[in-house]
Amino acid sequence: MLFSSATFLFVFLPVVLLFYFVPFFRHEPKLEITKKNAVLCLASLVFYAWGEPVYILLMLISIYFNYNIGLDLQTPVRNPKRRKTVFVCAVVFNLFVLGFFKYYPFAVDNLNRLFSMEIKAANISLPIGISFYTFQILSYVIDVYRGKCRAQRSLLSFATYITMFPQLIAGPIVQYGDIERQLTGRRIGIRKFSAGVLFFVRGLGKKVLFANTIGAVYTEITARDVSSLGLVTAWFGILCYTLQIYFDFSGYSDMAIGLGKMFGFDFVQNFNFPYTASSIKDFWSRWHISLSAWFRDYVYIPLGGNRKGTARTIVNLLIVWSLTGLWHGAAWNFVAWGAYYGVLLILEKYVFGSLVEKLPLWARRVLTMLIVIVGWVFFSAETFGGAAKYLGAMVGFGGLWDGDTWYLLMSNLFPFAVMTCSALGYFRKFPKLRNANVRLALQAVGYAAVLALCVVSLVSDTYNPFLYFRF
Amino acid sequence: MNKLRIKEAACVVVLLVFILVLSTQNKQSSADLQSVFDAVSGAVDVSALEDCAESRFKKEFGLDAQEFDDVRYLASDDVMEVRELLLVKLPQDNDGQALLDRIKASVNDKAELFAGYAPEQSGYLESYVLLQRSGYVLYVVSDTPDEAVRAFKKAL
After folding, report:
1. Phi then psi for B50, rounded to 5 degrees?
2. How many domains does the structure of chain A reveal?
3. How confident is the model over B85-110, as pLDDT tens digits?
4. Residues in chain B closer than 8 A to A72 (CB atoms)
5. Domain ranges, residue A86
6. Higher pLDDT pick, A432 / B105
């Protein structure tokens, strides 16, 4: 089920909110929060089963296994080696689940190519959200093992943490430590609920009005033969994709954060105007923040981070960024995309960082954006060869212009300009009004208009999947 | 072995059984595309349809035919004809999700286009079939989609 679908907006969400907020145990706060968790967990299972009825079982197995692992790790033992064995088994189990369902066909295909073999892999579809919920589970297991968090004794609370539908299928990746207390006691008030609604509407607008609109232009461009694309069209196409992926994913994150607030949770921020970044490092501190934080806390720092000398830091960065690429998809273009950022971060840190810092801010931003845009070519392509072809068009292999360049530019210039300004944060300071009531009223009218436009758009266009669902 | 370890081991066993069942169900068929195509096209009326080039496939679904092991696409040049037949053999490293998404989007677009003024074509679109099985994706818009599905399953 999509957040941006009529079924979710007009049936699923209202029903869940109704059951969630109707107090069953008015004078028993503990029982009431248990009831709320039960409603949320059940609703999340229905939400997940809507598109993936088979993989519900996989998720339930993972939940039950890791719940027991948590308790096992919490149990005092005389022999610390035994505890370590349990921890290693848990990590292997979770990586096996992720590896099998996400990377097995990719691995088999590469083995076949490398050794001219004919191994037949079962054609198993990717369980939606598996990369996100496996990382959440791993954060729990690792934090409990390190003693950073206590094991969750309630299976319901643990299942709620893993299945929570607002962030189940496309993040943000919520680390257990950030939400532990909220699972057993959280404040749910009208102020937080309202803030959640605003977040949600903003995200919905980003997805439905911006991402879908500009995504259609990109689809139109890439539907044509790439080798015949003119340089300008190719650049315009990838710029459209640059906007699409930002509004699509940050829109989803806003909706997830908004829904979380409606249910009383505070999730971490996942985007902070990444296209205003002035360096690659800055970009990754603003884009998919929860994923970067996860890799930093659970891979980069345990590998030694930057504490073991330059050579080791370089190796660590390459490992982390290749894994980041691979996390996004079982294909070489994703690995190349990750390694591309790894190499650039290394170069920025050790080679040209000090030179770039001397440039004016606008030049640093333009340079960063160029690097990011080229990176999206690898990301958007279905294959490595496809990315190379598109890069060829961007350097002029198909000529400067093609027959449709002018038409494409002219017919999409206005929405493109509006979205660019929005992505660069030019609208975030509007309106600067002293009178708080007028500002509030304007805000309410603005959000109501966005919601109305989204509903109109959704009624006429029912299918609009999120790009990040494929991860 | 304490209770927790037994529960953990039970989870591992259930997971392995789950994977085994899934793998058996979704094992790639050894049938070649031509034989599956012959079976399916024999079960539906394709007289009004023509064999389409890769460019038409890309135009309709936005994907490169070369990304797949094999593709056969029958459609009509008549803009008022929605009946079509698509059979795709997936490579091992492709779960077909992108293709399924594009096909669904295409059907929705067409359904929207024909709704209200072309009831016969809308009817065909309402009963479209999109199936992924044993490494193949079948998409049929036809007056006898069930026949196509039966032939497809039998051919695999």
Report:
1. -120, 155
2. 2
3. 999 988 866 677 788 888 888 888 88
4. 4-5, 8
5. 6-186
6. B105
